[in-house]
């Protein structure tokens, strides 16, 4: 893996002696970065989450021509390095927001505990694995999925007060239900409700509709984007799909490369502490 743009400029010593790794312990511009190094590189901004405010990042993958899926799934656009970063981002998060359509299409399973991150999670006061929070207005969910029947930590369902009463009752039997709005999920209420539970390190894995809604409502603080070196064509959606166009400017704060895949990190104009 090569670092094209440093996530933490202060760790790069351009005057390092020959043979020394300027990237720091566990990092290599030619080999595989350690999980510890990736966790350092993608750390949440301490000045934000430390103050009890939520920081919501998205993790998405796209083809060169903007497709969010290949043959209906994001899996076809991934790579081993993408999967490592995917796992690290989950290990850093308190809660993962995901749209109901993505849960259905991708066969979502509960997040798992990672032994490599157990000590760090405990030190931050986090549970053994991040909570999965499914966002759904209609509650059209298969509640027999392992996501609901056997999660390591209870799954959360975020819905509206107008959700069908029978589906709401069924969801409450297998999940922790958060009501965030009268007629549809108000994402501002949803993000705030999760933060009130102490879950300020927030991550969304989409899909495109949820990401579009988060961007439209100005709740997206950061985008971690894997760009696959593939042309997909077809009619796959782009990574964010919404009802209106927006123009939110994000700053490029880091860029890695491995085997043609680019791993970019964009954020609001807030200092990313490392």
Structure description:
The protein has 274 residues and is of the alpha/beta class. The protein is 26% helix and 20% strand. It has nine helices and ten strands. The protein has helices at residues 35-41, 46-49, 80-92, 100-106, 118-123, 146-149, 165-174, 187-196, 208-216; strands spanning 2-5, 55-62, 95-99, 131-135, 156-159, 176-179, 201-204, 222-227, 251-258, 261-267. A ten-stranded mixed β-sheet has the order 1-9-10-8-2-7-3-4-5-6, sandwiched between helices. The longest helix has 13 residues, at 80-92. The radius of gyration is 19 Å and the shape is globular. The two termini are 20 Å apart. Residues 8-28 have low confidence and may be disordered.
Concise summary:
The protein has 274 residues and is α/β, with parallel strands linked by helices. The chain has 9 helices and 10 strands.
